Amino acid sequence: MLFIAAQRLGIILVPLNYRYTSTEMLHCLKDVSPSLIIAEDVKFETQILDLKERVNTQIISFGSFFEKAQTISLEDFEPDFKIEKEQPIFIFFTSGSTGKPKGVIYTNQMMLWNNLNTAIQLEITSADHTLNALPPYHTSGWNVLLLPMLHRGARVDFISKFKPEKVLSYLQEQPISLFLAVPTMLRMMVNSKAFTAFKPKKLNYFIVGGENLSTQLIDAWAKKEILISQGYGLTEAGPSITSLHRHEALWKKGSIGKPNFYVDVKIVNDENEKVSNNEAGELCIRGQIVTPGYWNNTSYTLLKIKDEWLHTGDVVTKDDDGFLYILGRKNQIYISGGENIHPSEIEKTLYQIDGIMEAAVVGVEDEKWGETGVAFVVLQNQKLQKKEIRAYLKNNLASYKVPQQIIVMEKLPKSGLGKINKNELKVAFKKMNNDKKNFSY
């Protein structure tokens, strides 16, 4: 209701990460200068009280907001606002991996073309039914399935918090036809005790994106006759940019598929020249699904969008069949002894090892090589030894790609969307070194 009213009135919605502290929220609020803040007063009472002392903007609860809305007579209310394609409907704040969170402008035009792209690629009809378990402060919670489904007249159910057992039960009991998840969610569901007896009524496939998906995880769901449609998107575009059709999920494991219909893509090197097949380069995107820019940040907009092309910062390759593969973020590639190393390639190899539940590789400073790799892993099989992991890596990767250190952790730090936070891993590694803790090689 709030979204529809906002679109009809030309109001910009700014969904804020409710995991933020009030200080982090204050940065976003100062950036956008909102006219009104609506919050769930009971759940976020502490943050609300703090913000009331630090901002001049009126803060009201959802309950009181809708109570006041019910007193308005629609007969006397005739908005003269005309919906324009360039009009922003959302400002989504990025995770802030490159500093303070930046507000990405999301327009009506982006929403329309993304809805069309998604509906066509996923073959969504009015008979479809999904469960939305992703947070509403991220573009994926709105634009991967929710709005495209509503655009097609399909049904969307909501769950406030992801719990693997509860979601498995819902997918089994309700006629859910497709479900959106990040790899961490699928992994938690597979490791749940309820997974063994899981037999959904109508579930056809999952839509998955966000980070590397292990072949073991793909196979685990395939045994349940559920295929996985992997894809790629980002806050600044789409987010429906590429898709791997579910029937190609087992043939092209690890691929993010091909570009969707209303998207232009190119892969370029550091000189902005197009690269050949199977050669690594930065993915660039052009089309009606690209943001016009960042809120109050012209300099960063000009840095990222050049001649209508959005430079994503993601390094990819394209095989001879036209399928794309993510190698990692451009700023996460590290150089060891003069060789460019893509963490994603090592992570995919780690996920092939039976007993590794989660894996992440980061580059750290090294006096001899400039940078070296450190692998952080979470084990499902506690009997698995680091020497066995190292041996497998040496047999499947060039020696310079094998991480110098392997660190076993109980869990890896995650973002609010469930993606592994590599910046936190780097901080943790530096702290471990400063504390002079022992590492096993």
UniProtKB/TrEMBL annotation:
It comes from the Bacteria. Residues 345-419 form the AMP-binding enzyme C-terminal domain. Residues 2-295 form the AMP-dependent synthetase/ligase domain. Keywords: Ligase. It holds the Pfam family AMP-binding_C. Belongs to the ATP-dependent AMP-binding enzyme family. Gene3D superfamilies: 3.30.300.30, N-terminal domain of ligase-like. GO terms for molecular function: ligase activity. This is Long-chain fatty acid--CoA ligase.
